[in-house]
What does this fold into?
Amino acid sequence: MIHKFQERISGAALAAVFGVAMSSGALAADIVVGGIYPLTGPVAYDGATKHNGAKLAVEEVNASGGVLGGKFVLKVEDGACNPAQSVSAAEKLITQTKVVAILGAFCSSSSGAVMEVAKKYKIPHMTGVSTSQDLTRQGNPWFFRATGTSALLGQAFGPTIVKAGAKRVAFLVVNDDWGRAVASSYAKSIKAAGAKVVATEIFSRDDTDLFPYITKIKTRNPDVVISASNTQLAANVTKQLRQLGVKSTLMGEGAFTSEAYRKLVGKLALGVVGLVEYIPSIDSAKNKAFVKKYKSRFKEEPSKFSAAGYHAVHILAAAIKRAGSTNSEKLRQALLRTDYAGLTGNFKFAANGQAYNFNVFMAKNVAGGLQVVGVGTIPKP
Amino acid sequence: MLEALPQIFFNGVLVGASYALIAMGLTVIFGLMNIANFAHGQFYMMGGFLAFYLTTELSLNFFLALPAAVAIVVAFGILLDRTVFKRLRGKPLISSVLVTIGLAILLENLALVLWGPRPAAIPNPLSPDPVQIGPIFTTEPRLFAVGVTVVVIALVHTLLHHTRTGKAMRATFQQQEAAALSGINIDRLYSLAFGVGAGLAALGGVLLGAIFYVNPSMGGVATLKAFIVTILGGMGSFVGAIVGGLLLGLAESFGTLWSSAYKDAIGFVLVILILLYRPDGLFRKV
It folds into this structure.
């Protein structure tokens, strides 16, 4: 009786294993790339838009012939903006799914953790979103960052912010590598440009009630409050700042110009300035085409994360083509020779993997859309 | 800085009131029924999401959705007790720990499946615009939350001390066997107590969901704070839950004067200090 049962179980198990292997979808000629995005957790909404941008790019790559004669396949895992979970995802993608490169993991702390895994296995790893400066300072030759850092953005924007009239600046940022990086790098360039930093308040991502922090900021009378937060927290910051009667201009890195943000905060968005690397209203033929395609596919405007996900996939696909193989070292060298015409300018990589040469924008929320009130170009680091 | 003290105080009262509400529920469940309810934060989350569902999908008025959501969670709590926790009575604490951790995971992921990871603000007719009372800035939803909490505390007190059911509850929690011998239906009482405990947490979720937003992962932090306040106030003591909640809320708020990044730590340090001198918490059982 028991033997028969065991036979049936092992037979079923064998069938199941085959079934799973067959259904994983990737054929021998496909180029499989791993993507680690936060699909759940506090930045899930933004993670989904990044994923959407990537999906669009993958479709474009395959529509124009794929890579090296095969399909470009993006295998996605949920990093949830959590370093431990992102590391598990990376291990799984590299060791089990056998990807040739990793894209992700959105939050700087998570990308920092993932880049160690990529280094261990000598696989190229690119992020289009993480801005913490530390990531390109670790001498990790496998890491590429297709976006600015808060330091570079701070260098680009600091003087512009002060020129626009800011004299007393306060920071209200999330307690993670990104938030702290914004607070420190913008503070440096703002002070160098002659203004004062009067408060630096750091809140935890789980904090829903920001009144304690804002109360403190209010006592210092800033004329500009700079924040670093993604959609969900950005809406919270905006609403609560006004609920406590703070009249300062609000500027922010993160999601202060996205459609979702404007929907969440309504008329409170007017006058808020986003310090962004991308807005849908950028006036170029390439961007207009991208926005149209994205809108018809996903029924909303692309966010900066959509553009980031989109850029990263295209840069990687171009590099694979340039390398002529999926060999890790060749791919790494090919990435360093990138000169990709993206939606915001031409992306090049410096020796430490940091992208430069593209544009960034100060975008003010006005009735009916966004108005660019300042432009900078990311300098070579 | 001194001119901000009234605001800081009021901030602390609001946070403290929400802590008190959740802890009141847990103090019954943990302190009196001896169930280490790690899913308590999920009842809080459920209350919030049910209210969101009722107001958005079924277009129910917020002031009706609030008691409706709470009632649903109370019923759910009673059902849970009848089916699950009844079997755990008398079993070691670890059983309830395991069961409720599993329950927490189940409920959180159920919410993720049903509503997705996006946070949702519960639409309500209260205005989010700033309301200024003297030197204090607040909003209608916040005032409403504090008001409702005060009323509920009074109601719970009345239930416990001025009704027969309340008397039966207190008797059961003090001396279960004697209570059973005097004809009190222990099982029904425990179920009711669990339901009420869950309902209090759910109420917190609705009130806070109307001020801020609800999202499926909001339960974890709530459970943590609930346990801390329950232990601080004294397990099984309503007064303790209220005082402990306010104390923690005020400590966190005033802690920002020193360092806002460490405000949570300051609260916890205070709890540790108090427990060093009063290991059983501030107050004794009901």
User: Anything to note?
Assistant: Residues 14-117+139-217 of chain B form one domain. The longest helix of chain B spans residues 5-32. DSSP finds eleven helices and two strands in chain B. Strands of chain B lie at 130-133, 136-139.
